[in-house]
Amino acid sequence: MKHPPRKKPPHKAQRPWPPWAYALVVAGLCFLVYLPSLHSGFVYDAEAQILTDNYIHDSSHLWEVLTLRVMSRDVLDFNRPIHLLSLMMDSLLWGKQPAGYHLTSNFLHALNAGMLCLLLLLLLTPRNVSAKVSSSAALASLLFAIHPVNVEAVAEVSYREDLLATGFLLVSLLATITFARHRDGKAVVWGGVVIGSILLACSSKETGAIGPILLGLVWLLFYRHQPWQRWALLVGSAVAVVAGFFLVRSIIAPQSSVIFTAPPLYLGGSFSQTLLIQPRIWAFLFLSIIWPTSLSADYVAQNVLWISLPAALIALSIFVVLQIWLAWKSRVAAFGMAIFWLGLAPVSNFVPLYRPLADRFLYLPMVGVALIVATVLLHLTTSSRWKIPSVTFVVLGLIVWSSLNIQRQMAFSSPLALWANTLDHSPFSHTAANNLGYAQLHAKAYESALVNFQKAWELTQGKKADAAAGAAIAYEQLGHPAQAEAALRQAIALDARYAQPEMLTQALIMPREFSDILAKIVARLPKNN
Fold first, then answer.
1. Within a 10 A sphere around the Cβ of 489, how many other Cβ atoms?
2. Would you say 118 and 23 are in contact if contact means Cβ atoms under 8 Å apart?
């Protein structure tokens, strides 16, 4: 008697990972890529803020920061209390040891990458996570995590404000999605988290002010079917909190400063000139995203103005048209486009900035880029023809960018490395030449320092008091007192503060060790100088 053939048990579908698991993997990989920076020192503004200035190291100032009274003090980053608070917490744990500060910045960046992955998963698949969506979200988040343009914000710990502001905005967006899914008392709680996160973002950096606009866009793009009244209350509350914070900040801001002695100026000297220059800066930033091989810690006109205005406008038109087309195809891409431009708006020189262009300005806009890339990848991976080529292309790109990322971390490993690299990429930067000279003073390479101080002097046509003072220190250490005195006289003629070197340390222009050397030279000068 024949028995009927046994039926094979149905293949059990593999259960997908939960969204938090993908986010954890992305965060972990991000942290691993940035491990080299744990061996780096303090560079650029971190030298002044952490090594020269003692404000964050005095625990008695903690209450000033917590109560926001610091916004009335003449302190570096007085208007970013949450940023100061994070540095003070590091100071309590690590003192002035750089590894701990880098550990915190690396952790914050990895956390942001993980939250971005989670946000993408929730926006692309509100209910169930599929393999295609998870791979697209993970790859796009890794793009944000390792892109070389983000190294400046992570590896230079005094630029942590960008990590904090972006992180709190991501928290507010995740909380907004949770708010949208509740109608009971939990919605009130999550609404409070949204408002609190936006306030913390504003207290970290001015870019946090875009938070209320992002809330309105979340409703408009993803939850327009819900009653508008509850969203109007949420957005209105966010607007009120943001407006209140910046109003208080403007009222209690210090009226004078020994650190910021002159206000920033418009590019080209006027707002109309700024409008002609800014498109070229945007075009340069787009190029930095696509081909990040010439990044610099100090960009000057020569880095940007090789791009003609017509070429910049054509590039902008193509870029914007492509974004609009993608936004028409996908709500997530539309949201990414909004984050990109809203993130760029506060740092686009329409209000004068001390530094018109920097890599860190792209940290928040790169979140928008990741959203756009994720939607493109998701579209391509749905086609059997493009799935393998697109994923292969992105993976190869991530490998190349990881290599460039590590090289960029090495550039930020020490002041000597940073300013030598900057001078290579921005040979007309007097800041790079001058700061390289001071780094060489620290290394006791006095002859080399004199060469770079002379370069800075020439680039500014004899208007760089700091370069003349640096030359004075180098000559003094080489045993040439007459030349040291002559150089210091030049510095004093340009900036009277150099006749009172202790003021230079108060203004965070130079550390105590150098101002003490200048004080010895000043003591030898005739009294009428």
1. 18
2. yes
Report how many helices (DSSP H) and strands (DSSP E) the chain contains, helices first: 24, 0
pTM (2 d.p.):
0.92
Structure-token pair, residue 127: 């209910």
Q: Which helix (H) or strand (E) holds 234?
A: helix 228-252
**Eight-class DSSP state of 461:** T
The secondary structure element, H or E, covering residue 241 is helix 228-252
Q: What pLDDT score was predicted for residue 268?
A: 87
Displacement of CA 126 from its chain's centroid (Å): 30
Q: Kindly report the length of the chain.
A: 529
How many Cβ atoms from other residues are within 10 Å of residue 37's Cβ? 26
Query: Rounded to whole angstroms, how far apart are CA atoms 359 and 411?
Result: 14
- 448's tokens: 């080399």
List, by residue range, all CATH 1.25.40.10 domains of the chain.
429-524
Tell the CATH superfamily of the 429-524 domain: Tetratricopeptide repeat domain (1.25.40.10)
Cβ contacts of 451 within 8 Å, gap of 6 or more: 437
Q: What is the pLDDT of residue 11?
A: 47
Q: What is the DSSP letter of 330?
A: -
Backbone angles phi, psi at 267, to 5 degrees: -60, 130
Q: What are phi and psi of 371, to 5 degrees?
A: -65, -40
- Tell me the pLDDT tens digit for each residue of 287-329: 999 999 999 999 999 999 999 999 999 999 999 999 999 999 8
User: In the 8-state DSSP scheme, what is residue 52?
Assistant: I
- CB-count burial class (<10 Å; 0-12, 13-18, 19+) for 312: buried
Residue with tokens 């002379």: 454
| Phi, psi (rounded to 5 degrees) for 62 | -60, -40
Environment class of residue 178 by beta-carbon count within 10 Å: exposed (0-12), middle (13-18) or buried (19+)? middle
Residue 89: enclosing H or E segment and its boundaries? helix 81-94
Q: What is the dihedral of CA 452, 458, 463, 468, to 10 degrees?
A: 40
Q: Which pLDDT belongs to residue 3?
A: 54
Place of tokens 């490998």: 399
Asked if 414 and 41 count as a contact pair (C-beta separation under 8 A), the reply is: yes
Sign of the alpha-carbon torsion through 130, 131, 132, 134: positive
Question: Which segments of the chain have a pLDDT < 70?
Answer: 1-16, 126-131, 383-384, 528-529
